[in-house]
Design a protein that fits this description.
mainly alpha, 2 domains, 10 helices, flat
Length: about 325
C-alpha cells in the first residue's frame, strides 16, 4: 500500500478524532450557537467580532448577542473540520486512482466524499435550525460514521489477518455486526440525551429520582420533529420527558454492555495464534470499563465538562475497536 496514502489516512483519522471531541466540547459547553450563521461567524470568515465596532455591528445585524469565547470555540471546531475535509477529498482522489495492484476503489471514494458533504450540511443545519435535536444527534452520528470510514481505509493499509476457520470467522462476524448495531443505537441515544439537555434529569445512581421507575413522559420524549423556528438551546422538554430519555439511555447502556461483554469474551475464547483478536478483545473490554465508569461519573459528579467530553471520545474509540474486529473477521472470512 502506498506509504503516502497511508500517512494521509492516518493524519485524517487522528484529525477526525480531534474534530469529534471538539464537537462534543462545543456542544457540552453550550457554544453550539456561538456563531449564529454559517460558515462564517457574525459575517466573519476569519476570526470572530472582537473590536467594539465589530461587536456593535454584529449585535445590530444578528439576533444573538456576541459571546466571543463561545464564538471562538465554534470557529476553531469549524477550522479543524475544514482541514479534515481537505484531507478526505485527497484520500478520495487516491481511491479513484489505480493503486499498486491496479485497482480503483470508486465506491469507497464516493461514499467518503458523500459522507463528508452530508456531514457539512448537518453542521450547517445544526446552526441554522437552532440546535434541533434530530439534527444535532445526526451530526454526532455523522462524525462517528465519517471517522470509521477513514478508519476502514487505514485498516485496509494493514496486511495482517487473524487465523480462523471459515465457519468461526462467519459466526464471529455475524455477532460483531449485531453488536455494532446495538452500540450505534446506544450512541444515538446518548446524542438524544445531550441534544435534549437530559443528562442531569436523573441526579442519583443507580436509581433515578430516588426511584427505580420515576415519573416519565415517553410520548413527548421521542418526538423527532417539532417543526421549524424553535430555538432548542437548553432544551424545550418538560422534566418527565427528559427523565424518560435519560432512563432509556441507562437501559440501553445495560444492553450494550452485555452485548459487548458477550462479544469480547467470544473473541478472547477463539483468539487466533497471532493474538490479533485477543488484543482487540482486551482493548474493547478496557474501553468498555472506562466508558461505563465515565457514564456513572457524569451523574454522580453532575456532568463535569471534561468527563462528559471524554465520554464522547471513549464511545468513538469503543466503536472503532468494534469496527476493527469487524474488518479483521471480514478479511478472515473472505480469505478462504
Amino acid at each position: 500500500m502506498n506509504t503516502i496514502f497511508r500517512n494521509i489516512v492516518l493524519a485524517a483519522l487522528l484529525l477526525a478524532f480531534v474534530v469529534v471531541v471538539l464537537g462534543a466540547y462545543v456542544r457540552l459547553s453550550d457554544a453550539g450557537l456561538g456563531c449564529p450563521d454559517w460558515p462564517g461567524c457574525y459575517g466573519h470568515i476569519i476570526g470572530v467580532p472582537e473590536t467594539d465596532t465589530e461587536v456593535a455591528n454584529a449585535n445590530t445585524n444578528f439576533d444573538r448577542t456576541v459571546e466571543a469565547p463561545k464564538a471562538w470555540k465554534e470557529m476553531i471546531h469549524r477550522y479543524f473540520a475544514g482541514t479534515l475535509g481537505v484531507l478526505i477529498f485527497i484520500i478520495s482522489i487516491f481511491l479513484f486512482r489505480k493503486d499498486e495492484n491496479g485497482e480503483r476503489h470508486i465506491f469507497a471514494g464516493v461514499l467518503l466524499s458523500s459522507a463528508l458533504l452530508f456531514q457539512a450540511l448537518l453542521g450547517m443545519w445544526t446552526v441554522t435550525l437552532q440546535l434541533k435535536p434530530l439534527i444535532v444527534m445526526g451530526h454526532l452520528l455523522g462524525g462517528f460514521f465519517l471517522f470509521n470510514l477513514i478508519a476502514w481505509q487505514f485498516l485496509r493499509t494493514t496486511s495482517r489477518k487473524p487465523k480462523l476457520s471459515l465457519n468461526l470467522a462467519k459466526s464471529l462476524f455475524n455477532i460483531s455486526v449485531l453488536t455494532a448495531f446495538i452500540l450505534v443505537g446506544q450512541i444515538a441515544l446518548g446524542g438524544w440525551v445531550s441534544s435534549n439537555y437530559a443528562a442531569l434529569a436523573c441526579v442519583d445512581f443507580p436509581q433515578c429520582q430516588q426511584s427505580w421507575w420515576p415519573p416519565m413522559d415517553f410520548k413527548d420524549a421521542f418526538v423527532l420533529w417539532r417543526g421549524l423556528g424553535v430555538d432548542y438551546e437548553f432544551g424545550v422538554l418538560d422534566h418527565p420527558a427528559r427523565v424518560a430519555i435519560h432512563y432509556v439511555h441507562r437501559i440501553g447502556a445495560v444492553v450494550a454492555t452485555v452485548a459487548l461483554l458477550f462479544y469480547a469474551t467470544r473473541l478472547w475464547k477463539h483468539a487466533d495464534a497471532q493474538g490479533l483478536l485477543k488484543m482487540n478483545a482486551l482493548v474493547m473490554l478496557g474501553l468498555l470499563t472506562l466508558q461505563v465508569s465515565l457514564g456513572i461519573s457524569n451523574v454522580v459528579f453532575k456532568l463535569p465538562l471534561a468527563v462528559a467530553v471524554l465520554h464522547n471520545g471513549v464511545a468513538l474509540l469503543l466503536l472503532f475497536s468494534l469496527v476493527a474486529s469487524i474488518y479483521m473477521l471480514r478479511s478472515a472470512r473472505t480469505s478462504y
